[in-house]
From TrEMBL:
Pfam families listed in its UniProt record: Bac_luciferase (PF00296)
Protein name: Nitrilotriacetate monooxygenase component A
Taxonomic source organism: Streptomyces longispororuber
Binding site for FMN: T161, S271
GO MF annotation list: monooxygenase activity; oxidoreductase activity, acting on paired donors, with incorporation or reduction of molecular oxygen
Segments for region (Disordered): 1-69
Basic and acidic residues composition-biased segments: 45-68
Keywords: Flavoprotein, FMN, Monooxygenase, Oxidoreductase
Record InterPro entries: Diverse_substr_monoxygenases, Luciferase-like_dom, Luciferase-like_sf, NTA_MOA
Record carries keyword Oxidoreductase: yes
Bias-annotated ranges (Low complexity): 16-44
Length: 496
């Protein structure tokens, strides 16, 4: 009798599967049972029904294949101008060195993220001549950084926040088209509107537009840029002419049509004006995440507006910004989240937050002492570079009630009322929460904002992404080369 020789065994002593396997972002492998998305493939050699379904061993038709499982989209937003960055501790690195940007972008690409988003700060935020103590100073211009990152990454999308208030369509359309060509179709533009004269003082425009008009200008800006990108045909450039209330430009565009047709457009707010702009012009909405209920309401509202612009729900991705804090246990994760929040709210920052509510100088108050016992000034101008809260008296009363109930100091009250951690828990718990949020319609995916630069995404990619892949909720490889392919968005058809 011939004795069978067993094949090679895994480290755990099991025989390897005969099927192909896909390596996850964390270095583990998972069986590929059918299609690239992990859905069951067709049993080879089995007879098919007239509808193309296979039959069971007993000859009965198999049920029709279920709809593909909804996949999570992931992106990363570099911290530094949004009150998220943590500076203390040995793990915090440079916020302005190219090596930091490269590390974060490569980590996100290793995790198979859709895109890397770098925001800009058009003016240093200051109060009474003092720069905000936790803000980044000296960060390079975003598109310049992304052009350099295009050379050290292969697949991840590269997105920059650029203001539509202080720029011009021809120049920005040219820079974005250039990035799309240099990166092989990975460029994206997060459209911002500069909100006040404080920022406008750095530009000749000043603060000349009210809130509604800023969004009107942004929508026309995007339309004009798309006209420029579409002005190149197979035979080269055609003359373009855009006539509108904000822009009157004509000529020939100097860069060939981008590989994606149009770079992806991201909208980053959830105001009424921002939602209408997103429905008319955006490919991705990147608002702040609150609760699953709020996410479902936002998604239903924005996607419900698409039909008025001849668009389908699948033409837009809702990807709110979130933070994640992990721990080996739920208690450890919560402890880490509390410490992170204390580092994000310095004593000076706590006083500044209170001044946004009370509208008066509170520099004489002790941030570790009680809240001010005076009434807010409802007519005070906002702190420069900051927005005033909507109803100062109501907010002050809410803070006082919380402070009395929990015995909190001024700083502790600010920490409690401005908590930013969206998902806190073990890797398994966070993976489940992210998956359930997407399956429940609260979002199509998430833009992660790490607390640390450059290594703040490492743990998520190593510990959470593999769990999402095992759930069948996240890709195990990139299926295309462009950002539009990662997001599942069609390439725009050129007009004109």
């Amino acid at each position: 009798m011939t004795r069978r020789t067993p094949g090679p065994r895994t480290a755990e002593g099991r025989l390897p599967s005969t099927g192909s396997r896909t390596r996850t972002a964390g270095g583990r492998t998972r069986a590929r049972t059918g299609t690239a998305e992990g859905r069951p493939g067709t049993a080879e050699g089995r007879p098919r029904t007239a509808e193309g379904r296979t039959r069971t061993a007993e000859g009965r038709p198999r049920p029709a294949e279920a709809r593909p499982r909804k996949q999570i989209h992931l992106a990363v937003h570099v911290p530094g101008v949004d009150d998220t960055a943590v500076w203390a501790g040995g793990r915090a690195g440079s916020q302005i060195a190219f090596s930091s940007f490269a590390h974060l972008a490569r980590t996100a690409e290793r995790g198979l993220f859709d895109f890397f988003l770098l925001t800009e700060g058009l003016r240093l935020r200051e109060h009474k001549g003092r720069i905000h103590d936790l803000d980044v100073v000296g960060r390079p211009e975003p598109l310049t950084v992304l052009n350099a990152l295009a050379a050290v990454t292969d697949r991840i999308g590269l997105a920059a926040t650029v203001s539509a208030t202080v720029n011009e369509p021809y120049d920005l359309a040219r820079r974005l088209a250039s990035l799309d060509h240099l990166s092989g179709g990975r460029a994206a533009w997060s459209v911002a509107t500069s909100s006040d004269a404080f920022t406008g003082e750095n530009f000749r425009r000043g603060g000349f537009l009210d809130r509604a008009e800023r969004h009107t200008r942004a929508a026309e800006f995007v339309a004009a840029a798309r006209e420029l990108w579409d002005s190149w045909g197979p035979d080269g450039p055609r003359p373009f002419a855009h006539r509108g209330p904000h822009f009157d430009i004509a000529g020939e565009f100097g860069v060939a049509r981008p590989p994606q047709g149009h770079p992806v457009v991201i909208q980053a707010g959830d105001s009424a004006e921002g939602r209408e702009f997103a429905a008319s012009a955006a490919d991705v909405v990147c608002a702040r995440y609150g609760t699953p209920e709020a996410g479902r309401a936002l998604s239903a509202d924005v996607k419900g507006r698409l039909a008025a612009y001849g668009r389908e729900p699948g033409d837009l991705r809702i990807m709110p910004r979130v933070t994640v804090v992990l721990g080996d246990t739920a208690a450890e994760a919560q402890e880490r989240a509390t410490e992170i929040r204390r580092q994000q709210v310095s004593p000076r920052k706590a006083l500044l937050a209170a001044e946004q509510v009370w509208g008066v100088d509170l520099s004489a108050y002790d941030p570790e002492g009680p809240l001010p016992d005076i009434d807010p000034d409802p007519h005070a101008a906002p702190v420069r570079g900051r927005a005033r809260v909507g109803d100062p008296s109501a907010v002050a009363e809410q803070w006082r009630a919380l402070s009395r109930a929990k015995g909190l100091s001024l700083r502790e009250t600010v920490i409690e009322t401005t908590a930013r951690q969206s998902f806190i828990g073990t890797p398994a718990a966070v993976a489940e929460q992210l998956d359930e949020s997407v399956l429940g319609g609260a979002a199509d995916g998430f833009v992660l904002v790490p607390h640390l630069t450059p290594g703040g995404l490492d743990e998520f990619v190593e510990r959470v992404v593999p769990l999402l892949q095992e759930r069948g909720a996240f890709r195990t490889e990139y299926r295309g080369a462009t950002l539009r392919s990662h997001l599942g968005l069609p390439e725009p058809v050129a007009k004109g």
